[in-house]
Amino acid sequence: MPASAARKRSRRAVDRARPNDRVAKARAHAPTRGEDASDSSDDEREGAAAAVAGTSAYDALLASLGTRGVDAHASDESERERERESEEDGSEDADASDDGADDADDAEVDATESDDERSVEEEGEDEENDDGGTDEDAGESGDENQDASAMERHARLGEALRARDAEELKTRKIVWRGESGAGASTSGSRDDVWEGACGLEVPKAMEKPNFVNAKTAERWKEATGKAGFASASQAALYSVLASYVDVQHGNRKLVPDQGPAGQQMNDETLDAVCLHVIDHVTRTRNRVMKNNEGLAKKAKAGIKVVEDDLPRDQGFVRPTVLFLMPMRNIAGRAIMRLLDLCPAAHGRNDAVNKLERIEEDFLAYEASDDEDDEVVGKKRKFKPFVPEDHTALFKGNTDDHFRLGLKLTKASVRLYVDFFGADIIFASPLGIVTALQDEKTAGDFLSSIEILVIDHAHVIQMQNWAHVVTILDAMNQLPKDMRDCDVQRVRESHLNGFARNVRQTILLSAFQTPEINSLFNRRCVNFAGKVRLRTTYKGVLGQLTLKTRQQFERIPMKSSDVVNADDIRFKYFVKNVLPRVRENPEPGVVIFVSSYFDFVRVRNLLTKEDVSFAVNSEYTEPREAARARTLFADGRKRVLLLSERAHFYFRRRIKGAREICFYSLPEHAHFYPELVSYLAGSSAAVSSASNPAVGHAAGVVALFSKLDALKLERVVGAARRAKMIGSKERPMFLFI
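Request: output the structure for the sequence above.
Response:
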């Protein structure tokens, strides 16, 4: 079948997937959907559904928006319209679904192309040196033509979006289902559950990855040692990623294992994400190259191509994938792992360029252990104790200002390319924000991002979370400069300003925080829906190696007090905790503050009240911080004010501590037992457990409120958290 006829039929299928005029009128008189959209009457929904002459494609779109599905045979008028179109198409099958019709069209167009003719790509220099063609790559696996790829289905459904649909995605209230609700799916562990938003069903786990071609499958087996998934949790994650929904993974673990080339090893989460990205970029490139071949054949044959026959297969710019990572060492491991899994990086000796520069810029390690232990004169350098998780995270180059463009072709990978010529961008939030400030059109390279990966979001939150918010607000905007863009081939969703509604956001973090949840619920507006991994925590109280008195005090606060939460906490501290600190006859009180804004507030309070204290914050010079800890250990300073960021970046031992006061619980739950262990050097640690009634005995005082449910669950466990927050009679809880 000619490509023009196939394109026309595909466009008719998309038109059938759109609501007719009666649906538009029904929606015009319908109330605006906001947070109370779920309260709309069933009669209004049924009236809108009866007016739709839709197909399965638009049914899926409505289902993803939280609207009742539409019966394809509900309207006799729609059946008559299909019959007329069937007569016009002749022998074509009019009863096939939209997805099946497009699949058949693609297969017939591919069958008419010659296997011996060389493919053409817009980046001519790199492609001329590549061996083979797209037809060979696509022919090695029948999966691409079998299901037309989830990427193509996602793009086609995105074409049916309207302004009202996009507005609903911004304003609708996100409701998550629990284990007993619909849409829940276990993931390897009974404590980890995948759940969909607004009743979305979680995709079932695949038995094996849907490889784009045989080379990718062979490379995956060689790199991972398995033909399929490494575990059930990896299978569940990849299946969710392949459905192109927004994903929030709240149990991201840092794996310290690295290969000989510096690549990340034994990281199932990263492997699943890299495979999904390679699949997406490869399918996008193959689709564009096939369409270029078809247009070139028509031009060679002298056939005039009208605008309606041009394929809509591109964005405004080439970059489609963005990785946001906190530091160079983490990005370097991910880059090397992606190259390890990418078959194009293993075809020939010069398949990847500038590998030496990657090692220097991202994988260069600091001084080795032997160099750290070298003797200076007759005195050995002092080597402080550092936990293993801190060493694994900060091993290597910890610079947080970088950006790198990566171009993926058929048989080569090009590093350090210009952003507008790259397929994948690795960058830190600070690197992107500084690039956006260079010039007015600097942010155009973000206009066509289709997959956004935010890895180690909990580490980025320790840097500056506002940068991530700035990037998402600047992403998928209409570009100010077209930069050699063929507007006639740009997808309609991008031209209509709905590019962010077809973007998939993958948010990976070790745990959930209110900031991460807010970003995922409000700024990720993928029409396909949202899925998250909910983890149930058992707490860290069992990890304590010291028996001491732990007193948790609940601050009286309501959910509506979220705006004034900081003021309420501060007033409670001034009234109930500060007097106990001042009346303590012995020094050795450590006040731990999670937020730097609260840290400044408490610091000013201690200065005003003439309390003898020392400071350790992330902005304190290392020499001054060491001096402050020494004064505190010697008892010359009664209080040590410590911020969570300072402890996150340096993890120094604190001597002389007799009492730990948590002004706010730490985001990183393992900081709690680590800080409590500092009481082991105190002579009163044992007496506090044997005599908990003593007013100033060594121990722990932790303040929490109803708004600290996520932090509290990670510290005390899910069962205790429910009792401590739900109890209205007891505001104080004691653990020994």
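The chain has a mean pLDDT of 77.
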